[in-house]
């Protein structure tokens, strides 16, 4: 299945972002590159917010967020209630993020994993589906927080 995907990174992940974007396009996906556009230092929250805004606006079904560790940009993306961003470093976590959490954005750390592992994570993420069922109520709580009694 082909998807429309937004992708963004900070300077630390610019090279990986560019390679993943090209790789996704080669596979027929529509990729919207939200920057950064070079290796000059930038602030990762700005790019996490861009992904969140694009997902919330319906510009894409999925997002790929990258920074040096993946942590900062995932925190920024998750500030938007429309985003369920999962930081992953291997394909099992990527699949489970979709299956159990209906994640719509994947975050990767360019300083922590290589390009082939990053591609494997993205491919697994895009091929996986939300299992629904017992997970639906939990996912609903992620976008509409409610507290259960302890």
UniProtKB/TrEMBL annotation:
EC code: 5.3.1.6
Enzyme category, top tier: isomerase
GO molecular function, one term: ribose-5-phosphate isomerase activity
Pfam family, any one: LacAB_rpiB
Superkingdom of the organism of origin: Bacteria
Keyword Isomerase attached: yes
PANTHER family with a match to the protein in the record: DNA DAMAGE-REPAIR_TOLERATION PROTEIN DRT102, RIBOSE-5-PHOSPHATE ISOMERASE B
Assigned protein family: Belongs to the LacAB/RpiB family.
Protein name: Ribose 5-phosphate isomerase B
Organism from which the protein derives: Sphingomonas canadensis
Gene: rpiB
